[in-house]
């Protein structure tokens, strides 16, 4: 799978203006992902110190391709990223991961790709080759299977030629698996090849479509199948809601955190009914709800997560999501066995949340919301339209998450039905979900979660006042979500909505 990272690299040469290093591609392995950066003006270097002194060496913008097709591929790529950061290579941004077929030697597994880098060109090459060796890279044949493959693609705007290294990578323009992730980061920049005047995006569009089509991949855990948000045949995942709260809007008090027998039966029923993810919450975020203390939230969710992980064998391959906006709750939940951090505020309500997400290395759900549960109903002004404004605000949260160190291939997005939205907004999102996925640059390759279950607008439209009886209206919204491209639907009525999803998948999840 290809992926691109935008890196900051400290250099040893004086330059007139600080720039982030580009990574040029070396000739020591085939590419399956790419990271790109180019020389830029100091005004665009948000986090770089431009003073030239021995304590603040100039920084270069670089891109490195990461690839793997042996063993635990995502884990190997993430280890490589960690080792690069330890070597003073800063990852500024990442592309998605793309799973691609091998290009030259066909009798091998698909590649998983990603990128990042730093230092001067040859120093950078030495560093990444050392990382490859340290991670146990074994290459039996040229362009054949390997556990980790790091290639320098671009380095500032330099053209660099050496017996060991050529920058830019001499073959990068013929490789979809390099250009596709690169176009997530710098689609409108031009390659520094002499006489090349088209942008990366224009050049990518001129290439023949690859066979098979590479798909963006979002990684949850070793025991959970990766999400392929661009695969038209992908199944919809059912996320079962397990609220261990006395005051949630439709099921408050239904599930007790201390009744482990009932908890076991509930979880087993969810799984038997088709749930693949269980979302556990210990604090209500319904409009107007009052927060509980951190200790109370921990007491509600941590024993339940531990019990599911240690005492319910059927849940071994089920992903557990912790529904919280508190960093400490998220961290302890992950230590207890959670696979996903589902934050309704996307890190806005706790300044420690994004760094905690990055530190845990777990998959994260970034939801759009404004204000707090008690104030969000007053924050529903979208002057440019709800799709455009929610898109812009989600892009800001993605940037903040990347700056904190969260990898793009660990992110899932949620437009936040009912959160700082009124009924027309919710209906517009359901009607036009596809616009997020295909009409907004920067949002194209993410998986999307939709949570329409039993929402207030369904009750208003149907006249069903009791939330627990809104399953028919919920069925319509689940179908609309799947038609719009949702990868996960978060629901209360698991058995019924699994059936809805199966039929909707048969209608809409086909390769046209």
UniProtKB/TrEMBL annotation:
Keywords assigned: ATP-binding, Folate biosynthesis, Kinase, Magnesium, Metal-binding, Multifunctional enzyme, Nucleotide-binding, Transferase
Keyword Aminoacyl-tRNA synthetase: no
Gene Ontology BP, a term: folic acid biosynthetic process
GO cellular component, one term: mitochondrial envelope
Domain Pterin-binding, chain residue ranges per copy: 236-502
Molecular functions per Gene Ontology: 2-amino-4-hydroxy-6-hydroxymethyldihydropteridine diphosphokinase activity; ATP binding; dihydroneopterin aldolase activity; dihydropteroate synthase activity; kinase activity; metal ion binding
A Pfam family annotated for this UniProt entry: HPPK
Entry EC number(s): 2.5.1.15, 2.7.6.3, 4.1.2.25
Keyword Kinase: yes
Similarity comment text for this entry: In the N-terminal section; belongs to the DHNA family.
Function according to Swiss-Prot or TrEMBL: Catalyzes three sequential steps of tetrahydrofolate biosynthesis.
Protein name, as recorded: Folic acid synthesis protein FOL1
């Amino acid at each position: 799978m290809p992926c691109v990272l935008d890196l900051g690299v400290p250099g040893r040469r004086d330059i007139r203006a600080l720039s982030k290093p580009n990574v040029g591609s070396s000739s020591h392995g085939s590419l399956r992902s790419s990271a790109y950066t180019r020389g830029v003006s100091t005004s665009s270097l948000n986090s770089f110190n431009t003073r030239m002194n021995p304590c603040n060496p100039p920084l270069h913008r670089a891109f490195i391709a990461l690839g793997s097709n042996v063993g635990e591929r995502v884990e190997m790529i993430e280890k490589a990223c960690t080792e690069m950061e330890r070597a003073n290579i800063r990852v500024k941004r990442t592309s998605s991961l793309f799973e691609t077929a091998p290009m030259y030697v066909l009798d091998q597994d698909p590649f998983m790709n990603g990128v990042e880098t730093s230092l001067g060109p040859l120093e950078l090459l030495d560093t990444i080759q050392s990382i490859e060796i340290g991670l146990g890279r074994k290459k039996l044949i040229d362009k054949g299977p390997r556990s980790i493959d790091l290639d320098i693609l671009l380095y500032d705007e330099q053209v660099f030629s050496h017996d060991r290294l050529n920058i830019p990578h001499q073959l990068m323009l013929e490789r979809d698996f390099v250009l596709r992730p690169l176009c997530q980061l710098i689609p409108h920049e031009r390659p520094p090849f002499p006489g090349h005047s088209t942008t990366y995006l224009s050049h990518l569009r001129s290439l023949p479509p690859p066979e098979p089509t590479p798909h963006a991949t979002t990684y949850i855990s070793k025991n959970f199948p990766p999400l392929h948000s661009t695969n038209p045949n992908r199944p919809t995942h059912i996320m079962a809601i397990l609220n261990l709260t006395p005051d949630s809007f439709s099921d408050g008090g239904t599930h007790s955190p201390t009744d482990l027998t009932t908890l076991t039966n509930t979880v087993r029923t969810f799984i038997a009914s088709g749930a693949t993810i269980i979302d556990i919450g210990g604090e209500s975020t319904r409009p107007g709800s009052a927060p509980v203390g951190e200790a109370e939230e921990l007491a509600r969710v941590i024993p339940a997560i531990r019990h599911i992980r240690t005492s319910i064998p059927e849940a071994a391959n089920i992903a557990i999501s912790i529904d919280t906006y508190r960093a400490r709750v998220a961290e302890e939940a992950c230590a207890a066995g959670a696979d996903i951090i589902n934050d309704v505020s996307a890190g806005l309500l706790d300044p420690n949340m994004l760094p905690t997400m990055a530190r845990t290395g777990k998959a994260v759900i970034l939801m759009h919301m404004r204000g707090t549960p008690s104030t969000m109903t007053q924050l529903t002004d979208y002057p440019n339209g709800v799709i455009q404004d929610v898109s812009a605000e989600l892009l800001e949260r993605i940037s903040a998450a990347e700056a904190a160190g969260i990898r793009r291939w660990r992110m899932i997005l949620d437009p936040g039905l009912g959160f700082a939205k009124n009924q027309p907004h919710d209906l517009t999102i359901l009607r036009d979900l596809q616009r997020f996925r295909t009409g907004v640059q920067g949002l194209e390759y993410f998986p999307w979660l939709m949570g329409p279950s039993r929402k207030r607008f369904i009750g208003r439209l149907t006249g069903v006042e009791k939330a627990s009886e809104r399953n028919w209206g919920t069925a319509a919204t689940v179908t609309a979500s799947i038609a719009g491209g949702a990868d996960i639907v978060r629901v209360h009525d698991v058995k019924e909505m699994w059936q809805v999803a199966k039929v909707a998948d048969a209608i809409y999840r086909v390769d046209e």
